Amino acid sequence: MGEAPIGSIDRLRTAVLGFPRFGPDRELKFALEGHWRGEIDEAALQVTARRIRAHNRGLAAAAQIDVFAVNDFSLTDHVLDTALMVGAVRRPVPGLAGEFALSRGDAAHRPLEMTKWFDTNYHYLVPVLDPHAGFALDPSKPLAELRDAGEGARPVILGPFSLLRLSKSADPAAVEPLELLPDLVRAYADLLRHLAYAGAEAVQIDEPCLVLDLTRRERESALRALGELAGAAAGLPVTLATYFGGLGALLEPVLGVGLAEVHLDLVRAPEQLETALRVCADTGVRLSLGVVDGRNVWATDPGRALPLIDAAVRALGPERVTVASSCSLLHVPYSAARETGLDPEVRGWLAFGIEKMAELTTLARAAVVTGAERESVIAAMAGAAVARRASALTNRPDVRARVAAIAPDDLRRPTPVAERAVIQHAALGLPELPTTTIGSFPQTPEIREARRRHREGELSEGRYRDLIAGHIVGAVAWQERAGLDVLVHGEPERNDMVQYFAEQLDGFAVTEHGWVQSYGSRGVKPPILFGDVARRGPMTVLWWRIAQSATAKPVKGMLTGPVTILRWSFVRDDQPESDSAWQVALAIRDEVWDLQAAGAGIIQIDEAAFREGVPLRRSERDAYFAWATAAFRLCSGGVSDHTQIHSHMCYSEFNEIIEHIAALDADVISIEASRSGMELLDAFERFDYPAAIGPGLYDIHSPRVPDAQEMEDLLRLAEERIPRERLWVNPDCGLKTRRWQEVEPAIAAMVEAARRRRSAVPEGAVR
Q1: Which of 321, 658, 731, 737 would bridge with 687, disulfide CB 3.0–4.6 Å?
Q2: How many angstroms separate the CA atoms of 434 and 615, rounded?
Q3: What does the alpha-carbon distance between residue 102 and residue 53 come to, in Å, rounded to a whole number?
Q4: How far is CA 620 from CA 250, 267, 627, in A?
Q5: Closest alpha carbon to 64 in 2, 150, 152, 3
Q6: pLDDT digits (tens, 9 = 90+) for 609-653
Q7: For residue range 531-590, what is the model confidence (pLDDT) as tens digits?
Q8: Domain 417-759 adopts which CATH fold?
Q9: In angstroms, how far is the first alpha carbon of the chain from the final one?
Q10: What is the pLDDT of residues 714-726, one digit of tens each?
Q11: 402 CB contacts (<8 Å, ≥6 apart)?
Q12: 263 labelled catalytic
């Protein structure tokens, strides 16, 4: 018989910082896209939104979660929602149409710049602040969602410091965003009064930027803002939520500003708990312990989580401890139980959103009992952790032996990039400002249906191959008519640039329902890297051969690099990420060599997530860059000087990492640059980057189709920073999410822009 619960408490309080907002079957995606096509009106879209929120509340109630988030839902993006709420940005047209104009653009308006939310694969919209316009609070959205939710709901608001830190100033020479913090805090204080009057029992203010490397001025500004908000709360308990890392030197002062509760991410930074307990021991501050990983899909090991909870309960008492997810569950799918197609052994190691809420309740119950009763409460969780550690799936001696045999020469191309460029120019015979695309073309309903029928056994292997080959040959013919110089096969066989490879690599599992939101209506279904990785056989050579046989122009071989495969998967947490990177890199290296042997003169190894993987703290970055650049070089090491290696990178701020991009030793990189008006190329102006660059000339994430003049203007800006002989012309990213009626005029305009610049004398160009 177990010991009695602590006092009269049968479990600790539980909280979830936020929920997935896509809907379990991507209801939000389909409603948004239906609305944008004019098939449903705004009222019907809002009905879907309310159903998703109600569904999420029901999941929390079923899991016995005590504190659940509201105002974490968004039709566009929570950063944009917050900026609109405080009047930091203005809609170009009234209502929801104006919000969509900011998020995706329309015929008259370019969308806001989009970039990664810290080191996740979610993209947020970057507010551009008019520093002279002031702020004007409109609390209608959080108030409406609070009314819908009822008891136990805690409104979630992105904090003022993080909002400004993540924004840009429309006039940076005059005013930096953080200079606006005092005025913005007053708007937030007004918001707290509105929420208290509306009956909110507490409020959660998210300040994830506090875990970044901050200047002394930034730290002082943030602490002053927190203190003012704590004082303005007027009896409304404020939980400060920090996540994605530890607070470092800010921990003690943050705990002393007078907040009711502080949430700490103990998955990413468990070491901060000891200091937090010492500081909080003699205060009334509650601690919210983020012990269930909101970023990854592995079942929580109670052997790691419970000692942290126990320490907090001993120091503070059970009344001042909350058991919580490390961050919002936005980053994980809804339910692992639905994944009946997975190997049952692997599925038993997983916890998606629903399972993670159940884990919180289990840990909260286990924390107040000991002995046999505790062992009984956590038996299933502990059993999953033990089974995973012992499984043969997580340890393949042959793979580990091959990694151990990697030699320094395997990471090198012996000829410098400038000399390779001369050799490749002679071999490829490309014109000045060569035109190409990033890789993928629109995924039509016909293509998706063919893949579905093949996957479900309705279409034979031979018939499926013929259908895909037909699409490839058609795509090649269209590119020749469009006048592109370097072609791609269009990737009709690929459901996703990571999942496609994961399905052909040992050590990965793919899900059926494991969607998470990437941005807007776009979702991704990250594979699950559960074990040691090895290639079963060639993955792309057949499709490349079909494409190249249909044209005399060069066709790129298209691969995804090891960092991107890892960053866009749920990776194993039982070994260093670098160990997994070496394994994936060896598999991609094998594919590179097979493509070269087949005759491919250009091979693109996309590292779209290279910047995304950079640790948030500078002190951790050197170690990351060491293995990330080495893994890429392992993929391309030793290939012929005649083989031109390309790579593509998504939305990235390159200023701090430009030397590491150069260290990849790629011959050509393509980057997304149109939303920033080529601003991202400033890094390449200050750094003598030795290779060729293809800055994106149009934003493929927007349905807006720019004309040739706009693209020519962007190309002219690029020429002011990069020598023309090292410039390529391409879109921002792959075209799979667009429709052909958007792609065709956009590519025509891009080719025309390149033609015009070829005949123009560059003004002010670096020559």
Answers
A1: 658
A2: 35
A3: 23
A4: 18, 16, 12
A5: 152
A6: 898 888 999 999 999 999 999 999 999 999 999 999 999 987 556
A7: 999 999 999 999 999 999 999 999 999 999 999 999 999 999 999 999 999 999 999 999
A8: TIM Barrel (3.20.20)
A9: 82
A10: 899 889 888 999 9
A11: 586
A12: no
Q: Which residue type does 83 have?
A: A
pLDDT exceeds 80 at position 749: yes
Helix (H, G, I), strand (E, B) or coil at 159: coil
Res. 766: pLDDT tops 60: no
Catalytic residue among 35, 454, 646, 701: 701
**Domain made up of 13-391: CATH architecture:** Alpha-Beta Barrel (3.20)
DSSP E strand boundaries for 117-217: 123-125, 128-129, 153-158, 168-169, 203-206
CA–CA gap between residue 294 and residue 307 (Å, rounded): 19
pLDDT value, residue 386 = 94
- The token pair at 632 is 């890429």
Residue 362 to residues 287, 301, 371, 376, Cα–Cα distance (Å): 18, 12, 15, 10
> Domain spans of the chain?
13-391, 417-759
Tokens for 384, please give them. 């999953």
In this structure, the strands spanning 516-519 and 522-524 are antiparallel
Fold match between domain 13-391 and domain 417-759: yes
Helix/strand/coil (H, E, C) string of 481-538? Answer: HHCCCCECCECCCCCCCCHHHHCCEEEEECCCCCCEEEECCEEECCCEEEEEEEECCC
Q: List all residues 6 or more positions away from 458 whose beta carbon is below 8 Å from its beta carbon.
A: none
